[in-house]
Acetylserotonin O-methyltransferase
Amino acid sequence: MKNEHEDDPVLDRFHFLVNAPALFNAVTTAAELRVFSFLSGKPGAQAEEIRAFSGLPAHQLRVLLQAVCTTGLLERRDGGYHNSAVAEELLAPDGPDSWRHILTGWKEVYYPAFAHMTQALRAGTNTALRIHPGDEPTLYERLAHNPPLEEVFHRAMTAFTLRSVDALIEQPVFGDVQHVLDVGGGDGSTSARLVARHPGMRSTVFDMPSVSRLADGGQDAGHSAGRPDRVDLLAGDIFTDPFPDGPDAVLFSHVLEIFDEDGILHLLGKAYASLPPGGKVLLYGYNVSDDETEGIFGARLGLYFNVLASGRGMAYPARDYERWLGRAGFEEVRTVGGLPYEHGLSLGVKR
Ligand SMILES: C[S@@+](CC[C@H](N)C(=O)[O-])C[C@H]1O[C@@H](n2cnc3c(N)ncnc32)[C@H](O)[C@@H]1O
């Protein structure tokens, strides 16, 4: 019998979607085993060569390669395996912006939490946080109890940020900024790129003490490529500790979406109070569409915040950020939208 939805693209998407968790893990495993890096140096390698390199038993490798081939990321021709163009660009490289780090972070931190989604959404709070030791209310604080996982998490976040940061640092608004306060600046990767692009600029990265240690290339962190001279660190709590005077711009990159309206207005109020007249505030991150029907990266992020990270927040539409900027007192409010990976930059000026 003909399925009445046979020609419906939603059906194709549904079929892919219901198998996606297994395929996601297959691709992540292949990346962790460096299969894509190996094939980059040896295109057309046979299964036996991949087996010798990866150390997997032959049958298990056969199962894995079949799974990855179904995604299109690997191709098989004349019995040999090749990276697709996408795998070659995103998964074969080993640098700090490799998607390999992102996949491992999502596998270790995000996706285990999503098994708790129904319960967490019903409860109205991030019940999946109980997977992580500690009694603090957010994932960011609890990760301080687990330094190896905290490092995996920040390596993934940095890799993703590096993939979208060029659109931020090239914005003309930075042309006359002298000193930026990078609130929730993580391991300092965004600031490092900003000051490298703008030689007259310096930055202060304000984040939690355990994260500041990562930004400093901390003893056992080892993943920060070294902090540039024009990037300073300020360790503390962005809610309870004061924002320093001095910076003429405050940047929130991937930070406000973690919180709810009260938290966001509190942080924007602190930014406004700390800035001199003419100072700028810059909100960079994911925006779902204004009608809240589009944005798959934003969808994943909103669920992750509510199930695990903070119990609130979402990839708010740009119009929400513009409204909050106005309420905090900022003028000349506008958004540069359509940036890569569903990103936008909302801006305001203190007059
Ligand atoms: C999603 S990450 C963004 C990192 C970086 N700005 C970027 O764009 O990649 C959010 C950051 O906010 C920091 N953060 C969250 N709550 C905080 C708090 N109460 N005080 C200080 N930092 C906080 C986290 O440690 C984390 O580094």
